[in-house]
Queue: 4 jobs
Job 1
Amino acid sequence: MSQVKIYGLKEKLDLVKKELSDVIHECVVEALEFPRDKRAHRFIGLAKDDFYYPDGRTEAYTIIELIMIEGRTVETKKKLVRLLFERIKEKIGISEIDIEICIMEAPAHNWGFRGYHGDEVKLNYNVSI
């Protein structure tokens, strides 16, 4: 299971929402060997007075939080982060300096979906990669 939250200035995110979701999902599918039909993305567009970001960043500054069941190797997670930086820059035009990525993991038993705990569900993908 994986959930993605994308934060940024609303006026900027609205322009690239669909394309950015497609790029993020493409990277997750490739790096995590995630099923193509499993996409849970939430865009959180903020007003300028609700979004403070570091000096040296532009209005394209975007925060991507990926929440997933623990089990992937460090190499797999690093591959995902590298792919996100590369493809977002290439396909959306947002520079690496304006992208912040955080992967947060939780044990399967801390998840609940489809009426079960995450450690009780038979997944159609592997988290130990």
Note: The longest strand covers residues 2-9.
Job 2
Amino acid sequence: MRGYLQAALQPLNLAALLTLGTVALSIHGELGDARPLGWTLLAAFSLLFLLLEPIAARPWLRAACYGVLALLALGVVALAPRTGTSPVILVILLAALAMDYPPGRVLLVAAALNIALYLLLAAASHPAPGLKVTLYLGFQAFAALVAHYARSAERARDRLALVNADLLATRALLADSARDAERLRVARELHDVAGHKLTALTLNLRALAAEPGLAGHAGLDVARQLAGELMGDLRQVVQQLREDRGLDLATALHALAAPMPRPALRLDIADDVRIGDPQVAEALLRMVQEALTNSARHGQARHLDVAIRREGSRIVVCIEDDGRLQAPLREGNGLAGMRERLAEAGGSLALSASPRGALKIDASLPA
């Protein structure tokens, strides 16, 4: 319920509601005996307009809702054609259409609506139907253009945020790879340089201990003991430096999800998960990225759960959101690309619908 209310109370919807209230007051006197029907049409238009975003996720349902809105708007105009304010409803409708559809489609709908508006005004013996339609056509064009460019700017901002998140996530993986490479270089240097010299020192101390004049010398025995302990400590340090800690997946995945207002990422990575191959990490990163995008666009999800576990020599990933599939499960370009990327990294992908109707992704990658 909270999600529906939040979607309904958008700035455009609130402005439209205020305008519809003004229209209702202005046509009150003209409606006369048709007042109950006029109020019903206005109330139905307002309610459907406010709930359009949360209830009409499927394209065909959204188009049907817009058709109903157009009929309701024309019905109000037919009941109150002479006041001059009822066609404002068409301005609101076309602004909403411009937010959802390309300009070509909006232009065709605008032409049909304005032809219907002209016929309604002419049938009501309006003194200047052509002038009235032309006047409102200017208002409609202004509102539609503002809405179109506002949506274009919003989409460009979202794309930029996703690209930035992608760069941050990739930078996190590259930084981890660079740190691992540096640790490996330092470990090799310690082993090859310091280890070699310590070995030489130990052999020389052993040779000195065999000399008759130095045999049993306390200082020599201490030096040999310290050299041995130092060699053990050096081996331990080298082993720790060479230990594969894996790439920091949590930081990269959270950076990827940060710019998206929804769904929120809920990540669960087992302690024994280690991924050192950048290609495998990249495939996992892109898989979660596509899952986030799908959940936001198609599932209307608020949360995305990602669980990463190790099973033998494989990394198992389970992804599920709390939304609902709006259509039968079909593998589009995004999911097909996800499958191809995983296959290149030696992984596999399985898609299914969860018991509550959400998209579930199960993947397996080499550890």
Note: The beta strands are 264-269, 303-311, 314-321, 348-353, 359-366.
Job 3
Amino acid sequence: MTEKNEQTALLLLGCPQVPVQTSMVLYLAHGLSERGIRPVIAGTTAARKLMEVADPGRHYLDEMNDLDATIDEITEKKRDFDLCFVFIHNDSGIAYAGTMAYISKAWVYALIFGEHAEELAEEIEFPCEIVAAKATHNPMPLKRRLDEVMQWAAVSKR
């Protein structure tokens, strides 16, 4: 946790290949901020650039960092988070979520989307909360599932 007992949430972004990722990151960052939880974005260069363009005034995106550098900080125990939301649309996203479940004290939320969301969800074999929806261009199926989770996401499960 950060100073003053402020809760923090890591939003971990891989390749932004599926269009719903950008809008859902902004939506989640807004929702967390409204609940007094500070969102921190960690992503690939392309994912961060999309976020910067989508929120040029930084209304929702206060802090953005390189994905690998953030994982290194957590591994080295220099930093950690209360919650971790991993955006997943392929196998590498599952690997990132599994890594976070292992190296971080944060409760991990696997946000699985895309055409193969159900199949990807079945591959998860580590402790986390799975939020899956077949969403590629239309964010509403994932938004509805995320809204259900956000009702109780402010309380860490660990």
Note: The helical segments are 20-34, 45-54, 67-75, 91-103, 117-122, 140-150.
Job 4
Amino acid sequence: MTSRETKIRLDLNNPVFQDNLLTLQKPERHAALDTLNKIRQLTWNQLYRDQGLKWEKITSVKPPQGINAIYSLRLTQARRATAYRDGDFIRLLTIAPDHDATYGRK
């Protein structure tokens, strides 16, 4: 299987992401889990093209050392998550409390 056909693997181990996810209200938490399940079934090319997820590079935030770029994607109707690609893995970092917070703006 080529890397283009490889399904995305989820890394949900970031403690900040876990705290953000587990403290969402139940309907929003369920919507987020549905989105994560959807992402697991996609290839990277499908993720990049998916209009509902809106994978976007965040240019207003400097990525940590060793990470090329941080991206945002729509996790629920109201919330976006930050993540980066590491090989086949999407490493999820945070769930922003609101849309602007994703991009480092207030």
Note: The chain has one domain: 9-98.
